[in-house]
Each structure stands twice: as structure tokens, then as C-alpha cells.
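Researcher: Predict the fold of Signal recognition particle protein.
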Amino acid sequence: MATFGNLSDRLAETFKNLRTKGKLSAADVDGTIREIRRALLDADVALTVVKDFTGKVRERALGDEVNKALNPAQQVVQIVNEELVEILGGQQRRLEFAKRPPTVIMLAGLQGAGKTTLAGKLAKWLAKDGHTPILVAADLQRPNAVTQLQVVGAQAGVPVFAPEAGNGVGDPVRVARDAVKFAEQKLHDVVIVDTAGRLGVDAELMKQAADIRKATNPDEVLFVIDAMIGQDAVATAKAFQDGVDFTGVVLSKLDGDARGGAALSVASITGRPIMFASTGEGLDDFEPFHPDRMASRILD
Ligand code: GDP
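Model: C-alpha cells for Signal recognition particle protein follow.
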């Protein structure tokens, strides 16, 4: 994964130096932690996350589990791995389905984050798994959003519920509410609601997203964030958490050569799990997110 290439190389170099040592002194540990800290900051990971992470690694690395280990350096690498899994959210979190269908999944995020593409990916993935999803065009802000969702829906082979008038007109809250009723009647078991996003965080649109949330009572609200967003990840994620709140995070554009900081900050800053990763423009470039696998890829 291109995103973490540089961070991976830096950490590999750090651990290579560490492995040349037998017993580890406190100075060895501190030197290693300093290098890890720099590598994470250069990858755009948020400072609070870096501090928290290195604090935990340091405490454990200076403790008994390393002291008594047959191979102390290997043990430190293991600790870094475990703590990385933790900041990535610990256990994998799967989608929650409603006991009484339809399950409503609402998508939120900045414009261009990859929501509409994700809607298609998610729908296709769920349909393959035997579900009968519909996509809902509740982005009536962007001139072409409805058409774009219809194109994505056709590619995914999944129907799209859209306001009759088409692009840019109508009340998105009402469209979302009607879509849930439609799904109940037509026995679609999952409703995926695409919502509007702006280039920056925007109070009016945040309220609109909150209203859609209230009207549809979703089982999941997924916050889609572009991995390329770098240092802005924290402020953006917090704004969406305060404005709409969300139950999970989707990282998009993990195929790009971003430095990966967003990916490593967001779960820990918001306390919400990363549930999916989007890794390309195609509808199949999508996978459930496994914190342990991601940590292993970074430390490979
Ligand atoms: P929205 O405004 O949040 O609905 O974002 P879109 O779904 O329209 O995506 C914005 C652009 O990013 C489009 O050109 C997509 O093809 C592209 N895109 C979305 N997801 C990914 C991804 O995972 N990787 C790459 N490389 N491009 C993506």
C-alpha cells in the first residue's frame, strides 16, 4: 500500500538499528522511541496521537516484558505492533444490521472524500453477500450528484432512489425519509444514504446531515475521509463528530501516496472504529478494515 511506504521504511530502519543490540538500555529505548516519534510526525499523524502512542510504547518497553525477553529488540517491535493495532481501533468492527429491516447506512464527509463511490462499493459488496440494498440520492447540493449516483448504481447493479425532479432540487431530508419507507414496502433490506458534502466544513450542510440522521434513524453513520487530507484529518473528523456524529470511519484513497497520518489519527481521536478501506476508483477496490492487518502492513 503506497500510503504507508515511507513510514514503513523509516520504522524498518529504526528496528534494524535496534536489532543490532543485545540487552536494551534505557537510552536505546529512548533513541528508538525518538525515531518512531519523528517517523509518525513526518507521516502527518496528529501530535496528541503520537504522544499517546510513544508514551505507551515507552512505558512497556522499559518494563519487565522487555527486560526478561529472550530477544528484547523483537519484543519492542511486538509492542509497537500491538499499540499500533490499538490506535487503529483494536478489533475489527463489522456493520451492525437492524433487527427489523431495513438497515439504514448514512454516509457523511467532505465533498470529494469519496462518498458516492463508496456508496456504490458498499452496495455492490452487500448485494454480493445476498442483501437487497438501495442507494439514496440525498445529495441535492452538487449539480451532478444524483446523476453520478445513478451511474454508480447502474455499475453496481443496485437501484437508486432519487427525487423525481433530478439533480439539485428537492428536500434531501424528505428524500431520505421517503426512501426508508420505500425500502420497507419493497423489501429492500439495506438503505444507503449518500449526503451532500462541501469543500470545507459548513454549518448549514452539517445541520442538513444531522436532520437526515434524525429523520432516518440510521443504524450506521459512516464518516468517509480521504487519506490524503493529512493534518486536516483531526479538525475535519471532530467537526463531523460534533455536527452529525458517526458510528464508524471509512478511509478512502488509501491507494494514493498520502503519508497516512489521517488513517493513523482518526480512530484514536474520535474513538470510532475504521470499518472499511477504499483503495481505488473501481467498485471492487474496497475492503473491510482489519486493524491488525494494517499494522502488519505498516511494520512489514
Ligand atoms: P464525494 O464527493 O464524497 O461523493 O466523492 P466521490 O465519490 O465523487 O469521489 C471523488 C473522486 O475521488 C472521484 O473522482 C472518485 O473516482 C475518486 N475516488 C473515490 N474513492 C477513491 C479511492 O479509494 N481511490 C482513488 N484513487 N480515488 C477515489
